[in-house]
Fold each of these.
Amino acid sequence: MKIFVGDNGNVDFDGPIEVNDEQFEKIIDFFKTLYRSEVVEIDTESDFRSERIGEKLFQKTWSVAEYAALLDLDKDTDELSEELGRTWMSVDIQRGQWIPRFQTWAKRSNKNFIKGDIKKIVKEYFDDLDKQKLLKREQRKEEDLKKKRLLKEKKRLGKKLKSQKLLKRTRPSPELDKIIQDTITKIEDVEVKLKKYDFGDSY
């Protein structure tokens, strides 16, 4: 068994470690004595992670339990850093940036995280964020579709205007002038709508 220690004190193994049920339980119990028990999560993985410390920079995702722990104001940054197994700076940054955003959401959503189930409320917060991201993606798709339709319509009107101007050379008439002006007005209307998408090529 080889244990790697990174430059920030992070620990990793050179490969998976085979353990029996009793050893597994002891390992989990050991980690729960080192860190807050609620942040020690077990997840079954089917894929083997080949990269290890020293090969690349790993971004350690924060769990719901860890974010909930940030709201434990009875613990200072040093204590939380030790209990979460994270650097002092990462805890300090998350507390400074994430807590105000969470408090704003909680107030807007009428959530009492002081008396309520903190972990449940934090999960609701992230679920709400996911819904908002999904909604924004759908809105972007809808806006892209509208933009494509407008561009297609502008192209169609441009071809129509070109044909009308060619016809005017051989068969000029007040009626045709009115038709041409009507087409130009329609193109201008489309260009006004396209301005919100930073388009609007001249016809």
Note: Residues 123-197 form one domain.
Amino acid sequence: MSNTDQIQTNANQETESSELQHGKINSGPINITWHFKRVDGFVNVIANPDGTYLFSGDYKQNEPGKDLDIAFALRSRLGGMILMHFVGDASHGAKWSMPARSDTLKDNFNTFAEHDWSVKYDLHLSAEGRAKLYEEQERKAYEEREQRKEELRKAEDAARQQKDEKLAAEKKAARAEEEQKERAEVQHAEDEVQRAATSNGGGGSSVGSTVGDVVKTVGTVAGVVGSILAFI
């Protein structure tokens, strides 16, 4: 497995979902709060009859080198969906407050009296986290290369002491090959660190998958095909 493959494998280790939840109101705003189970914190959604709504939350655990990717889907009994999505640095926890307004929500608010909802978050390596991980992997690889070179040098010296010039030449050539390989790998490492440091987020194609997951969760209710009314 290459270092890049290892980064992709480790990029999405923590996740949590509310699964499918149901709610009902008689009048007034929809107010949903879900407390995280794995860590301290919560997510809150308030949707008002005038079409305004607020997506906010507080992820209180420090996650150095990680981004928080969280999505919330609110679905009416007729299938209309309001989607909310936040991605941000979680190195020192994460707080967000995202107000929005939708005329479609205002016009269809009565259909949300009975509703389904789902929230999910993932933690992905941030650009900084990806760079740090790659540097650690390269440091380990460098130490292993240096050990191999030292073993070859000792074998070469032993062969010369035994006056086995052919074996000594073979060990010298092998050591030169290791040094050439090292120069190529160092250049590749520098390129990869630069790429990781300038990439958008750490999780590759998995970033944003929370949106698809919550849509899938609420979109299968009662066999009614859902439609997206608003998305922030």
Note: The longest helix spans residues 127-161.
Amino acid sequence: MRNIFHATTAIVTTLVALIFIPASFADDTTTNTTTPPASQPAPRQPQTKLEGFMGSKGTLYIRDIVECGTIDAVTVEAVTLYKPGHEEEKTRGFILSASNAFSAVTVYVDYDEGTSLIQALTYMQGLSAKWRGLNQNYKEADYLTTGGLKVMFYHTADGKHQDAKVYLTDGVTLNTDMKDTEFAAFKDMIVAGEAWLDKQ
């Protein structure tokens, strides 16, 4: 209450000062050198339907979750969201999360991006066999979702190294390397999650 009182007093004082400025100062053109307050960064806007639904204020909703698995510190969940009494209007998709000793990251993938994500992962698996042992330029394939999931498959110029990288970006970025077997397991988790979401 004390802070509100002081703030109100300051406003009133300013208004009175402006009203009763002496005429002799009416033409004063002294430049106001007061530095304006620094603008605050705009809040991060939801990038996906899932994130937007979960960020709704004053809304009661139900969340059905199936954990598809965890591979190399990345956890994949399939989720449906809906308001009570509106089960036929579900918002569906994936939640991917990862953490380390310093930070945690969560990204969202809408259901309508699931098919193209699986197609990209399948194509990258084919590249693993196609590029293996090649000794030529560095090669890289990338796929990025709307909500901040990036999957990259790379092959070094000397032909000795090729792996997948999965990046989760939500203000900060966490990434993990995946060998062929881990990458296949990651894809299988997405496929299993989409199969469940198809039935919801």
Note: The chain has a mean pLDDT of 81.
Amino acid sequence: MKTFLMYADRDFEPKEYPAANSEELIQDLELEILFRAMASGDEFLHGVAKSSVLESLREPASVAYRQSILMDCMDQPDVARQIYAISAEAIEREKGVWGWMSHRYPEAALHRSIDVLGIFFELLKRLRSLADAHGEDFRSEGLRRFSAMLQEELNDEYLRTVEEHLKRLKFRDGILMSAELGQGNKGRNYILRKQPLVARSWFERLQNWAGLQTAGRNEYVYEVDERDEAGYHALSELKTRGIAHIAAALAQSMDHILNFFGMLRLEMGFYICGLNLRDHLLQKHAHFCFPDALPSGSTRLGAQDLYDLCLQLSSDERIVSNTINANDRPLIMITGANRGGKSTTLRSIGVAQLMMQCGMFVPAQRFEAGICTGLFTHFKREEDVSMKSGKLDEELNRMSSIVDRISPHGMVLFNESFASTNEREGSQIARQIIRALLEMRVQVAYVTHMFDLASGFYQANHEDALFLRAERLADGERTFRLVVGEPLPTSYGEDLYRRIFDAQENNTPVASHAAI
């Protein structure tokens, strides 16, 4: 049985070792806030959230496949949570069954397998009942196929057969086994025989237990004395040989079903993460939408009312959103007033791209973008006293690492990069890097205070660049919105100076820049 809930043709297998740039993405985009919201306190779901968000899909069809399943789960959240709960219950109850799974103790392994399969049989019937009750209500290819698989492979005849086999395998009336004498009168060809399921009264079972029933005319009976330890050992060895093969087969069946429940828990966990995140956003009255994922190589990037999801999750107020139309413009240059929302907007682009490429909704009213072959961030770092070289060297080393891994149609987000040196030198370094990336057909979004850098691209009349500026009103107030505009030679740092020190003199708290 296959679930096929994350991919249409294969299982979801999270990478044991995350991508080399995963830690940078988590740090720069503040993704840990997102993971915690998706997990809602569940450690297992936290791992699912992290692996699924960081392992981006590469085809629009794969994105649409997951989106449709998530839409179904959002339409029927109780059913989705029941499916996940059944898979999680199977994993936990299997761990609680005591016993050995060893070829040295086939009888113990057999009894444990029977107990576990009995649990699985009960849970599979519950899954089948959910498929019968709700399968026709699903609209996605993934969940409709999953429901059809349960109804076909767990049909009534199969369920009755499994139930009958589990009853037989308990061997309440002993075992029936045949063997042959081989060379040196040694036993060979041990075969466990099928016994009819004959209902016997309690009195007949008591007679058999007490040894009061007499053998038939054509039967021969050998009784082992209760003090004959060697005889009991020999009978035990014969029984072990008889059930060894069936114990191994049953253990394989148990592992197969356990793997099915494990994969179902993993893949369904992704959609439970989506439901958890949706619930958090609904509580904050925040909007979201399912984006249009375009093929890799598309230069379209458009967003309406895009906001920083992680900032919204950690704030009780409504976060300011922005509209971006960067279609056919692979370079987005963001400048403007200090603490005007530039870095927040940059993070919102990165988080939305990752969420789109893992098959989820995004924090916007509308979002469309081409699938990128890899998302990378190059944000400024705080001074590290343990660094063996200067900040510029550290920035260049990180940039070198990105260049080694990036490929055409990737995306790089820069935040105040190369500002650790003087503006002229930093602008020259950044300018050459940006031009090289654009020639590689890599999308670039760059937040900078370096006027020399931004104005240089603007004056070159780049038709493939979008210039956004953090809005500042005439009185110095920040709206935290970005508008299309020419780079200015000032970041209005004195506005912040006056605001902060005037507030201190008047004992007035400084309002947050992140929300309205």
Note: The chain has two domains: 1-8+77-271, 284-505.
